[in-house]
Amino acid sequence: MPRNRRAPEEERRRELIDATLECIAELGIQATSLRTVAARAGVTNGLIRHHFENKANLILAAYQRATEMITGPGLAVLEAAEGTPAERLRLLVKTLISAEETDYRLLALWATFISQSPVDPMIAAVREESYDSLRQATEQLIASVFEEEGRSLSADDLERATIETHAVLDGFWIAACLEPDRRKAEQLSTIALGTIGKILGLSLS
Description:
The chain is an all-alpha fold and 205 residues long. It has 2 domains: 53 residues, Arc Repressor Mutant, subunit A (Orthogonal Bundle); 138 residues, Tetracycline Repressor, domain 2 (Orthogonal Bundle), CATH 1.10.357. The protein is elongated.
């Protein structure tokens, strides 16, 4: 029974967060207010305050949702146990730079929130936590790939390889989001695999 009572609450929160993301994508953070979100969601300001209390909490929840949309598919690959480490690394790249996970709206949201990071400590904290989770999981996977190859990396070299890998992934993700031709966007994942393979000294194609 308690679960049944919570479900509508969780669904309503998700609807309000999705409406907030739509407003932010169209209007920006400053112009997004409780009133505009309420109008988009077809609810009252009071209902939003019931769930989030104020705009700051609503914006933070929206950013957390945006980071889940961006990093969630990659984390799912990293947490899975199927396949060899090299296969999972290939799948990670293809997943993060696939047509399903890249679009201009998502990029616009990412850029909008990132612009607030230097002036909003709470947004900065969410960004750091999200990036650290993905980076640490990627670092463990890269270490497993090298172990599979019978090679080892020092802690410093492993950290450097992970930073370089994510720099490539970030750049290709942005390029894929900006590419209107979905077929060309898909090709970018193949190019990214070759680039990361060169960085790591591995054949990932």
